[in-house]
Amino acid sequence: MPSKVRFFSRFIYGSLIVLLAVSLWLLFREKSVFVNTVKIEKGDFEEYLRVDGVIKSKTKTTVTAFTTGDLERVDLKVGDHLKKGQYISTLKWDFKRTIKSPVAGVVSKVHRESAGPIQRGEPIIDIIDADNFEIIAKALTTDATRVSVGAPVKVTGIGSGELIPAQVVLISRAGYVETSALGVEEEKTDIHMKFTQQPKTLIGDNFHTELFIKVYEAKNVLKIPLGALFKDGDTWKVYKVENNKVHAKEVLIGNKNEKEAILENGLNPEDEVVMFPDDTLKDGAKVKRADQKQRQ
Q1: 48-56+132-218: CATH homologous superfamily?
Q2: Global pTM?
Q3: Which of these ranges, 26-40, 74-88, 164-178, has the smallest mean pLDDT?
Q4: What is the Rg, in whole angstroms, of the alpha carbon atoms belonging to the chain?
Q5: Where in the chain are the domains?
């Protein structure tokens, strides 16, 4: 009888010890962190400079009073189309003389609408060529140095969502100082562009646009998403996934755009890295891919 009691007691104690050991292992074991990953691949890279621009007519004709006299009312509005020789108004001097449009185009500004005295040389209306536009952008001089004549441009922001191709034709050598909305003085210069394809969207003089000017491109290079990079002091690092663990790896990057950067050193094609690593992820941590969590 006593032997049976001792056996039972040892069994109970042994079971408790095993249960305690398992509980401690479950409590203190390293838990895997679920992460999103991406593989390093080769591909083409493009970098664009984003600036605001204004569409301008390349030709503008200002109709002025040819002499001092009395001008009759000008019944024209901005946007009216004019044919060459079309009637604009009448100017009374020693005799009445008709003022006619010297060119075909569109009225872009009415300087003088009401009837009354007018001085010689005083502007009456401006006429633009609605089929001959250019785009002008004000760019920081530090950005303008990266732009080349002939660089392709994507024009958008007009209203339809259409991406209209254009090309840089001139970079002004004359800089100027402009004060920003925050009161900061900025050194800028003008970049002139032309449309290389007729826009389907209606455009006009002084229309605002958003411009993306290509400043750099490279073919068949290693690329890495910006979301995989994090700063450690002055160096860029990533978390590389190897055998279900992450290891912090220093990398060297080159040009970057709003989505990705050129990877110059530190990783190879098909290497797997963590996207958007947070502060809780540490070197050597065990990880599981997020798609594994979804399958569970």
Answers
A1: Efflux pump adaptor protein, beta barrel domain (2.40.30.170)
A2: 0.74
A3: 26-40
A4: 35
A5: 33-45+219-295, 48-56+132-218, 61-128
